[in-house]
Write a structure and sequence with these properties.
Number of strands: 24
Strand content: 5-15%
Shape: elongated
Oligomer: single chain
Structural class: alpha+beta
Radius of gyration: 34 Å
Largest sheet: 5 strands, mixed
Length: about 750
């Protein structure tokens, strides 16, 4: 059926000019909206057509914002997130009752007029003149659609939204021209489809499909007559006619729509009367938006995925471009999360640490050789209530985490890898006394040296007074001997260690540079669990470091078209030789077989790992791996206030918490569940000859790593000397010789800095 135009077949421009002329002559009202006298706005009648013609020829139509669905690696839904909850559907999937109801109540002459209904304008002008106010409008459905496009383009910027809806002649002129363009290009059916998909229905529901789901928990195509009438009535004032909060007003409005449908012949009066007797019949579905709705305890993984999208340049060159794509939504994001691994992680967390405990735990699982993040969880759930948090304790500060936690002796294998790469034999022996001052000087990067303060030398000691060397590398690693590893870093220098850490992706959680001090051998620098899990995956993959990735694919739906977006890829590089990695694997197998990590063992499945307990027991760790899975477990107080001494965790009392005692069993149970059904793989091990006579006695192998309280001042006494700045004079860079107050460096309630970490 050909489209009819009001105005006796005038051209679009002539039609617009006539419309504007009528409005201007009325003196106060344009398109049924009361406005100040046009003279005050500088718009003369003679300029109407010229102003109209100066507008751009084409209206920008931004993609409608829709919900984004985040999936796990198997395609299961993790969560839905959206700026505006909307699912675009074609007209054929919208109930005929809904189509008729919205036309009847909003623009009953929709199919008879063009972009502008001049009969409606004159009727509105007359009615408003009689009442002395604005009792009736005359915007057509097409004009309303155009206004909604302006609002959609404004996004969530309140200033731009106000500009898009302000009652001015300038906006109405623009709205009119684009309405004519839309009528010419789209036709009535498409305009109706677009209108029903863009308009706001209250309760965070944009578009009729979201509204049908919100109010009736059904699809738009299944709406009954009375349900369609209710939704059509909401559009005029979503807050006033909200059926959830004001059933009486909503019912009155629904009945008005039914009466109008009968008046224009869409339904019989008997049908209208029958429908008006029906209750509203709401079956409300609560809005399900954001990572707080994630299943399988994956709220923090979901949040990490969002952060990756918003920060990775592959999704847009600027932060604003990436945010715009994310907020427009319509994305299907398939992630690397393994549902079995995630379930195992959450189950183990729940069994060992309660969300109401004084301390928390956070875990991360990574696939060696690919960088895929398979699971991420913590004991305090994602949320806003007591014992809940939105801070992701597993990741760096830049990705929504805190400032990290000192990893203690879990850093020692990085020192060992640097030493092996530097040519040190795997059976190297050091005297390893129970107590000693930090050796001095120690070479650092750029030709500098760290020098201990002779007046007040920094000292360290082992966990137990019976822990006295000499030790070789294998035994010192199994028992986590502090003095051995400090002698090692003093021997090879600090720079090889920080260089190896960088190659393995080990960085401070707060983004600061790693300091050039020998105490880093004891894990004094704050790291995140994901960083440590991925670093140990480097050992598992025989020396290949792969950057972490969480997104497998992203598809984007715009209108009826779906396209694939480029996603970040893991980049892998060799951090150490296979021989070095195999040697570390051999050393760390000893930790779980007969060292500090025995409680984390996986039985017949080969595994390797390292415990860590920080100074004053603010944090405890176990980081370990098999050839096909690496994982890190941290336990501690995110606010860095509660020492884990005389504490109950998961219903179990502890005099002192060790890395092998609480984190170790969490890791073991998590890995067992995650690897169930997976092939048992073996490490490539090497033969490490004994460096010393092992008949001299083993000491206490059941201890955890060294931690004797607060004597580790290695990071705060002494300084860097020398270098090649301006001719190589003796330039000293002292570090503070005072104790840092507890919590001094806390960030977002999630600090990890204290007086220095220990093994």
């Amino acid at each position: 059926m050909p489209k009819k135009r009001s105005g006796g077949g005038l051209s679009p421009t002539q039609q617009a000019a006539k419309f504007l002329g009528v409005s201007v002559l009325a003196g106060a009202v344009l398109a049924g909206i009361a406005l100040p006298a046009v003279g005050a706005l500088g718009l003369a009648a003679k300029g109407s057509v010229e102003s109209f013609d100066e507008l751009p020829a084409n209206m920008k139509t931004p993609p409608l914002s829709q919900r984004t669905t985040i999936l796990d690696a198997d395609g299961g839904q993790i969560a839905t997130v959206y700026s505006r909850d909307r699912t675009v559907v074609p007209l054929k999937d919208i109930s005929p009752y809904m189509q008729k109801a919205i036309v009847a109540i909003e623009d009953s002459r929709f199919y008879q007029h063009g972009a502008v209904d001049l009969k409606g304008v004159l009727r509105a002008l007359n009615k408003n003149a009689q009442t002395g106010g604005v009792s009736e409008g005359a915007s057509t459905l097409t004009q309303q659609y155009v206004k909604n496009v302006f609002v959609e383009e404004a996004g969530n910027d309140p200033t731009k939204v106000a500009q898009a809806t302000q009652q001015t002649i300038g906006r109405k002129i623009r709205e009119l021209k684009y309405a004519i363009q839309v009528e010419e290009e789209l036709g009535k059916k498409k305009i109706l489809e677009n209108y029903l998909n863009i308009t706001f229905f209250g309760q965070q529901a944009y578009g009729v499909e979201a509204a049908a789901q919100r109010y009736f928990s059904k699809s738009a195509k299944d709406l009954s007559l009375e349900q369609a009438a209710l939704l059509a009535g909401i559009v005029q004032s979503p807050s006033r006619y909200d059926p959830v909060n004001d059933e009486t007003e909503a019912t009155k409005r629904r009945n008005t729509v039914l009466q109008r449908m009968a008046a224009v012949g869409d339904i019989s009066r008997a049908q209208a009367a029958e429908a008006m007797k029906a209750p509203l019949g709401l079956k409300v579905s609560k809005p399900k938006n954001g990572c707080i709705t994630a299943v399988k305890g994956a709220g923090f993984f979901c949040d990490y995925v969002r952060e990756v999208f918003l920060t990775d340049p592959v999704f847009g060159k600027t932060k604003e471009q990436r945010a715009k794509i994310w907020n427009q939504g319509g994305l299907t994001v398939r992630t690397t999360m393994d549902p079995k691994a995630q379930k195992a992680a959450q189950r183990s967390i729940k069994e060992h640490v309660y969300k109401s405990d004084e301390v928390a735990t956070a875990v991360s699982l990574v696939q060696p050789g690919t960088g895929k993040v398979l699971a991420m969880g913590q004991s305090r759930p994602y949320g806003f209530k007591k014992n809940e948090t939105q801070i992701n304790l597993s990741v760096d500060q830049s990705m929504g985490g805190g400032m990290g936690y000192q990893p203690g002796s879990t850093f020692k294998p990085i020192v060992a890898a640097a030493a092996l790469e530097d040519g040190m034999p795997a059976n190297k022996v050091y005297s390893s006394p129970y107590q000693m001052a930090y050796p001095s000087p120690v070479s650092a990067c750029d030709g500098k040296r760290w020098v201990n303060d002779p007046a007040n030398p920094a000292k360290l000691e082992n966990e137990n007074s019976s822990e006295v060397g000499p030790y070789d590398m294998r035994e010192a690693t199994a028992k986590s001997v502090n003095t051995y590893y400090v002698q090692m870093i003093s021997d090879i220098g600090i720079c090889p260690v920080t260089t190896m850490a960088k190659k393995m992706g080990v960085v401070r959680a707060d983004g600061d540079k790693m300091p050039q001090v020998p105490s880093i051998a004891l894990g004094t620098q704050e790291m995140s669990p994901l960083t440590m899990a991925n670093a140990y995956a480097t050992f598992a993959s025989r020396g290949m470091y792969c950057t972490p990735v969480a997104i497998e694919s992203v598809s984007r739906r715009v209108g009826d078209k779906t396209t694939s977006l480029e996603v970040p890829k893991s980049t892998c590089s060799r951090a150490m030789s296979e021989k070095t990695a195999d040697t570390i694997n051999t050393l760390l197998r000893g930790v779980v077989e007969d060292g500090t990590g025995k409680k984390a063992g996986l039985g017949s499945r080969p595994s390797a790992g390292k415990t860590g307990t920080t100074d004053e027991r603010y944090a405890a760790w176990f980081v370990g791996y098999t050839p096909n899975l690496a994982g890190a477990v941290w336990v501690g107080d995110p606010a860095h206030k509660r020492k884990m001494v005389g504490i109950t965790i998961g219903g179990v009392p502890h005099d002192k918490v060790f890395g092998g005692e609480v984190p170790g069993p969490i890791w073991g149970d998590m890995m067992t569940g995650a690897l169930e059904g997976k092939p048992v793989e073996n490490f490539n091990t090497v033969h490490i000859p004994d460096g010393i006579d092992r008949d001299r006695g083993d000491g206490d192998e059941g201890r955890d790593d060294g931690d004797n309280g607060d004597n580790d001042n290695g990071g705060f006494i002494g300084g860097l000397v020398g270098g090649n700045n301006g001719g190589g004079g003796d330039e000293t860079f002292p570090t503070p010789s005072f104790s840092i107050p507890e919590g001094f460096f806390r960030g977002q309630g999630n600090g990890g800095n204290g007086n220095g970490g220990r093994g």
